[in-house]
Amino acid sequence: MCSNKKVIGVCYGPRCSDFGGRDMAEALREMGHEVENLDCQSLCPHAPAIRVNGRFVHRATIERVKEKL
Ligand code: FES
């Protein structure tokens, strides 16, 4: 597991939430990461959108987010 905490931003907009964004935010928090709730980022066709180190992961999964940390 990554030792240094980095801020992750998760879109809490309706479409990303439908595609599991909020659930992933909770899972990431439980893993010890700092997670910021974001408004809709106009990336809805690519939901769920999760920002890691300033870049958005489209159609994010926990595994793909962890790869970017
Ligand atoms: S709802 Fe997440 S980008 Fe629009």
From TrEMBL:
Organism domain of life: Bacteria
UniProt xrefs under InterPro entries: Thioredoxin-like_sf
Name of the protein in question: Thioredoxin-like [2Fe-2S] ferredoxin
Organism: Mariprofundus aestuarium
